[in-house]
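Re-running the complex after MR caught last week's input typo. The corrected sequence lines follow. Everything else is unchanged.
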Amino acid sequence: MEKPNILVIGSINMDLVTETNIIPNVGETVLGDSFQTIPGGKGANQAVAAAKLGAEVTLLGCIGDDDLGNELKNHLKDQGICIDYINTIQEQSTGIASITLSEGDNSIIVVPGANSMLTPQLVRSYEDLIAKSDMILVQLEIPLKSVMETAALATKHHVPMILNPAPIQDLPKELLLQATYLTPNEHEQAALLATSDLSSEELEQVKKKCITTQGSKGVRIYDEVEKLIPAFNVEGVDSTGAGDTFNGALAVFLTRGLSIIDACQFANAAAALSVTKLGAQSGMPSLLEVKEFLAQHNK
Ligand code: RIB
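Corrected-run output:
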């Protein structure tokens, strides 16, 4: 079977991960347990998830002209991702995410740096790349105008697009209407349905595109009627990147022609496996691992 050709347009960050039992209050200093730098960024994470599951993945993104940027670019290459469209931006620092991890849950501050230089003009200059992709995957850690440009070009060339609306912000209704699929979590879904200036008909249209991730409660979709695809219960050590794994996997399995329900089941399994290791990308599974996991859990 031919490999799906997935284009991810999004952020590339280095995650600065501190593990701690105690989260400090304002003005307080506490001693943490460990510190690591781990590759991340929603765009890069989703690209790695899709590549590990056997897709041909290209990542369009920006890094700074610094050591972190070089390290991330080499790492993405090692993951089998096409890095020809990763732009090094002079006098910009590579994006970072400061992550505090406590009892498996995280809080994150992202400083976009070079990611904010992924401009609409830059996206437009890669129109050919967009036109020849089987699926586009985009998130909101790059400028909103660039996400809108991506959606316009994807629509023009009839390429399906998954918009993962994270981190959430006010979104123009054209974007919601142009996306083929929206993958918010519950909080993001509530915000995007509330903040957009949608008619009741458009609201229904948008709701039907939503594949809403609800953590341990599973994934909610509208397939004629509302359906819940249950999550798998696993012993998690780090939930960072679980949503990204879900998105990367969803893109792969939809492109391979699975129904939304089956694609979500595979993507749920991939996301469950991803939380069993520290770091956004370390636990992302291969196709074989997902199949073995499903075979064990669907007995
Ligand atoms: O979704 C997880 C990601 O969000 C982290 O890897 C971090 O870089 C932030 O972008």
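None of the earlier attempt is carried over here. The domain at 5-22+33-298 is CATH 3.40.1190.20 (UDP-N-acetylmuramoyl-L-alanine:D-glutamate ligase). Residues 31 and 101 are 13 Å apart (CA to CA).
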